Amino acid sequence: MPAALRLRRVPFDLSPYDAVLLDLDGTLYHEEHVLPGAAELVRRIQAEGRPYACLTNSTSNANRLRARLVRMGIDMPAANIYTAAQAAADYVLASFPGELPRVFNLATEGLHEILDGRVRWVDDARQPCDVVISGAPANVFATNDRQGIALYLLRAGARLVGICADRIYPSPRGIEFGAGPLTEMLAYAANVKPTYAGKPEAIFFQELCGKLGVRPERCVLVGDNLESDIAGAKRMGMASVLALSGVTRAKDVPGIPERLRPDFVIRGVDAL
User: Fold this and answer.
1) What is the per-residue pLDDT for 1?
2) What is the mean pLDDT of residues 89-112?
3) Selection from 90, 177, 166 nearest residue 142 by Cα
4) Element (H, E) at 237
5) Helix (H, G, I), strand (E, B) or coil at 46
6) Which residues are CB-contacts of 81 (< 8 A; sequence separation ≥ 6)?
7) In the chain, beta strands by DSSP E
8) What's the pLDDT score for residue 59?
9) I want to staple 122 with a disulfide (CB 3.0 to 4.6 A). Which of 26, 104, 201, 245 is the partner?
């Protein structure tokens, strides 16, 4: 294992950073099980009064995720949870200041809850539409009929916003298609270029750091995914800590390319 990527075995000092960003799935929990040290780490950060946020490419909303975390023994305000669905909503609202954008939801109930009352919902192909927001195909808003409507709206001039570019995601049913494949299919069919709002996109981290009132380069991010967590942190100039408790495993570390190399590697957040 290269010297720069040896596992860290000493207590991690968080004091040099203005904010701590923690990935959720694979870092703090896996499915419905909290990972070792996760609850203790969150309590430590809260006790120190340190600005923090938990981040995820989930298409859910913060209130639903907060309830899930509480069931696992991790208590935090919903305001400290930032999802890709929220980032997509923030991006759409910022793109139409002073307006109620016309939006077709090809994502989730969580997105509907975030934007309801703040946009004008589009329901069929005959209505004018500003934005189509696409999520993973396995959700109630992404039926075959609604995918067809989305294609028509995009060909008529609507913008395409993908909640995130994730190829796949783990679920209790196994590995499923993420938001990326459906968004790319629509983009190819409609001959449009999508905008992605989730990790590792700059949009996601700029919105989050704005909410926290910190500069990205003054943050440290802890996550398990090289493509979404570490790549996003490095793009924004953040310090990065790779946890080998989720997507990335110890056997993967020697082959990590230079562009994705984290600053530190830990077995799991109990090392923090």
Assistant:
1) 45
2) 95
3) 177
4) none
5) helix
6) 24, 53, 54, 55, 56, 62, 65, 66, 69
7) 19-23, 29-30, 33-34, 52-56, 81-83, 102-106, 120-121, 131-134, 159-162, 168-171, 174-177, 195-196, 219-223, 239-243, 264-266
8) 86
9) 104
Give me the residue label for tokens 């609202």: 93
Q: For residues 139 and 9, what is the distance between their CA atoms, to the nearest angstrom?
A: 42
Pull the structure tokens for residue 71.
Answer: 């069931």
Q: How confident is the model at residue 88 (pLDDT cuts 50, 70, 90)?
A: very high
Predicted structure pTM score: 0.91
Dihedral sign, Cα of residue 203, residue 209, residue 215, residue 220: negative
Beta strand spans in 154-200 (E): 159-162, 168-171, 174-177, 195-196
Which segments of 16-115 does DSSP mark as H helices, in order? 38-47, 62-71, 84-95, 109-115
175 versus 220: which is more confidently predicted? 220
Task: Kindly state the percentage of the chain with pLDDT values over 70.
Answer: 96
Domains and CATH numbers, the chain: 3-57+200-271 (3.40.50.1000), 89-196 (3.40.50.1000)
CB atoms within 10 A of CB 263: 17
**Which residues, in sequence order, are CB contacts of 257 under 8 Å at separation 6+?**
none
3-state secondary structure of 172: coil
Q: Which sign does the torsion angle of CA 161, 166, 167, 169 carry?
A: negative
